[in-house]
From TrEMBL:
<dbReference type="GO" id="GO:0008009">
    <property type="term" value="F:chemokine activity"/>
</dbReference>
<keyword id="KW-0202">Cytokine</keyword>
<dbReference type="Pfam" id="PF00048">
    <property type="entry name" value="IL8"/>
</dbReference>
<feature type="signal peptide">
    <location>
        <begin position="1"/>
        <end position="22"/>
    </location>
</feature>
<feature type="domain" description="Chemokine interleukin-8-like">
    <location>
        <begin position="25"/>
        <end position="76"/>
    </location>
</feature>
<dbReference type="InterPro" id="IPR036048">
    <property type="entry name" value="Interleukin_8-like_sf"/>
</dbReference>
<keyword id="KW-0732">Signal</keyword>
<dbReference type="GO" id="GO:0005615">
    <property type="term" value="C:extracellular space"/>
</dbReference>
<dbReference type="InterPro" id="IPR001811">
    <property type="entry name" value="Chemokine_IL8-like_dom"/>
</dbReference>
<dbReference type="GO" id="GO:0006955">
    <property type="term" value="P:immune response"/>
</dbReference>
<protein>
    <recommendedName>
        <fullName>Chemokine interleukin-8-like domain-containing protein</fullName>
    </recommendedName>
</protein>
Length: 94
């Protein structure tokens, strides 16, 4: 009898882990990002409102920061320009 209970608990635990990994992490709101913070961006991606998330946002992953920052999608163009300049300056320094 105890073995059945343990087996059911283990199956439920595995099921919960599987379902929680499938839940997307979405930006709920966006905020203005200072230019200094943009210099610390390691990577970024666009969140669209057509999928599981409700609002479009630019998701920024910064150095030495665990959680991403959600910026307004209009920041994508300045971010692309800054990203391109940073790549060029890295290549010149090599």
């Amino acid at each position: 009898m105890d073995l059945k209970i343990v087996l059911v608990v283990v199956c439920l635990y595995a099921l919960v882990i599987t379902f929680t990994e499938g839940i997307p992490k979405c930006c709920i709101k966006t905020k203005n990002i200072p230019r200094k913070a943009l210099l610390k961006v390691e990577r970024f991606e666009m969140q669209t409102s057509s999928g599981a998330c409700d609002i479009p946002a630019l998701v920024l992953y910064l150095k030495n920061q665990r959680n991403p920052i959600c910026a307004h999608p209009k920041m994508k163009a300045p971010m692309m320009i800054l990203w391109h300049r940073m790549k060029q300056s890295r290549q010149k320094s090599k």
